[in-house]
Specification:
Layout (H helix, E strand, L loop, with lengths): L8 H6 L16 H4 L4 H10 L5 E3 L5 H4 L17 E2 L9 E4 L3 H14 L3 E4 L17 E4 L6 E4 L4 E5 L4 H10 L3 E2 L10 H6 L7 H4 L6 E7 L5 E4 L5 H6 L10 E8 L1 E2 L4 E8 L4 H13 L10 E7 L4 E8 L3 H12 L7 E7 L1 H7 L23 E10 L5 H13 L4 E7 L21 E8 L3 H19 L18 H6 L3 H12 L12
Parallel strand pairs: 2-17, 3-5, 4-5
Antiparallel strand pairs: 1-3, 6-7, 7-11, 8-12, 9-10, 9-11, 13-15, 13-16, 14-15, 14-18, 17-19, 18-19
Helix pairs in contact: 3-5, 10-13, 13-14
Length: 520
């Protein structure tokens, strides 16, 4: 068999689980007019934080321009986020680069005393930039300095600082007897927002969501108190922080996570057709997802599909060494389909598979790049939408869907990803993540080319989205957050929204952790 090297960077990136921060409900004062300067904040932070803690007061904030106790700094807030594209319309009072939980406690003490909104930034991958908050003159706590990794092989757990990115975790866990975590495929993503929103990834059919393996957390509440959160200490909060999203109730500073064994071998099989076969391929994929009698997919298989106006690709990833399982699945898939125009297959160890998610395009694989020494975080400009499905898209819906795709021009990618397997075995009410009965999700992502074509591209994206909305569950994954969604509490939280609302009032009734999409 001819072996082709498969470039999986784009597939992996689409599956990245991005940091998301959520928040509250009640009325907020207009900070643009109620504060003339931030001198009181500077005085408080200077008195409580060690000199080694870096603070930046951006000059783009009017209140900082009026400070007489400290000099403001010309600083571009968008540099803190991996996601670009007109999402930032406010300027913070200060960015604090904390190094431990006590720093976070001190910042919250000042915020509570002086009535500032606080938002925590982990990896900077919120689809709508919510790691930076969304209100004028807020405090941003940058968590990147809390990035320790402690692997305990004896009890098969890892303890991680909330600012740690997935890449270093994958690398260090693999050095300890080939362990890993069942997290997302983008190594750059920050742990905190990813895990708190659920933590979906390529191992989810095999091991569930990352939040399903979170055993304990340390967190600072709105009053600046450090909490230990697990099944017996703050059990309601433990429930909410596993799938309810980040930044809404407390600021988590540490995670203890159950590790899983990394696959011995990872094999990726890619089948590519030209657009004239798109409808047949999508119908076959849906049959694969919904007909357990015919297919009955093993949980160590992850079958995704990417559609655009140039081609359609089914990607089958197999986490195992018995390749007959993979071959049978491919044979069943192709039984009623035309011969693919391109076929690619490639096998590699788990850490190399994760390394491919960096997208370095380097033939000399060096796993140490996953530690991000001397690497600059890539940035992206895109808009995304997402929907869950518990039934196939109708033939009429597929016709409209494909017709709309053919009408546009631009960098559009639509990915179908499975949400079944081990995810389905966990009761819906065991964690705050409510979407455990769906078969697959569809993510639509369009990349920014230039400002002149942006409106046309957004119109195209919305038109395609509308063709498949009717057949969907009308629900979505909080880590793929979309600010344009109406009735968003139901869209993301479904049957859990009332309990989350009650817990929000209990833990943050004064809206200390406010931003645009509030739990209400």
């Amino acid at each position: 068999m001819i072996i082709f090297i498969l470039n999986w960077f784009f597939i992996l990136f689409l599956l990245c689980i991005f940091q998301v921060n959520l928040v509250t409900t009640t009325h907020l004062p207009n900070y643009r007019f109620t504060r003339t300067n931030n001198n009181d904040l500077y005085t408080c932070l200077s008195s409580l934080l060690p000199l080694t803690v870096r603070t930046i007061y951006p000059c783009s904030t009017i209140a900082n321009q009026n400070n007489f106790q400290c000099k403001c700094v010309h600083f571009n807030i968008t540099n803190l986020s991996a996601i670009r594209g007109g999402r930032f319309s406010h300027s913070p009072a200060v960015i604090v680069y904390v190094t431990d939980s006590s720093d976070v406690q001190n910042v919250l003490a000042c915020a509570a005393n002086l009535n500032y909104v606080v938002n925590a930034l982990s990896g900077g991958h919120s689809y709508e930039g919510y790691g930076l908050g969304s209100t004028y003159n807020n405090i941003i706590i940058n968590m990147e300095g809390i990035n320790y990794i402690k692997i305990n092989q004896h009890d098969r757990t890892g303890t991680f600082g909330a600012g740690t990115r997935l890449g270093p975790i994958y690398y260090e866990a693999y050095q300890s007897d080939n362990y890993t975590i069942n997290a997302g495929s983008c190594p750059w993503v920050g742990l905190a927002g990813h895990a708190l929103g659920g933590g979906y990834g390529l191992l989810s059919r095999l091991h569930g969501l990352l939040s399903d393996n979170v055993l304990e957390m340390k967190a600072v509440n709105a009053q600046g108190e450090l909490l230990t959160i697990n099944e017996t200490h703050e059990p309601d909060l433990y429930w909410a922080l596993r799938g309810g999203g980040g930044g809404s109730f407390v600021i988590v500073t540490e995670f203890k996570i159950r590790l899983v064994k990394a696959p011995l071998l990872t094999t990726q099989y890619s089948l590519v057709w030209y657009p004239n076969a798109s409808k047949l391929v999508i119908q076959r994929y849906q049959l694969l997802m919904f007909n357990n009698t015919i297919f009955n997919l093993s949980n160590d298989l992850f079958v995704s599909m990417t559609v655009n106006h140039l081609e359609i690709t089914i990607s089958i990833t197999y986490f195992g060494i018995e390749l007959d399982v993979l071959k049978r699945t491919v044979a069943l898939l192709l039984e009623t389909l035309p011969t693919p125009n391109i076929t690619k297959i490639h096998s590699e160890d788990w850490l190399t598979f994760v390394y491919d998610g960096l997208g370095l395009g380097n033939s000399n694989v060096d796993h140490r790049y996953l530690l991000f020494k001397n690497l600059t975080m890539p940035t992206y400009c895109f808009k995304a939408k997402h929907l869950f499905y518990d039934k196939p898209i109708s033939d009429h819906g597929l016709d409209q869907f494909l017709n709309r795709i053919a009408l546009g021009i631009g960098e559009l990618y639509i990915t179908f990803s499975p949400w079944d397997g081990h995810i389905h075995t966990i009761p819906i009410d065991k964690t705050a993540f409510p979407h455990r009965r769906y078969k697959f999700g569809i993510q639509l992502m369009i990349y920014c080319n230039d400002t002149n074509s942006e409106k046309k591209q957004m119109k195209w994206l919305n038109e395609i989205y509308s063709t498949i909305y009717h057949d969907s569950t009308k629900h979505s994954y909080i880590n793929y957050i979309d600010r344009d969604v109406p009735s968003w509490m139901d869209y993301y939280y479904n049957t859990h929204q009332q309990r989350l609302h009650n817990l929000k009032y209990l833990y943050d009734k004064n809206n200390r952790f406010y931003f645009e999409k509030t739990i209400k």
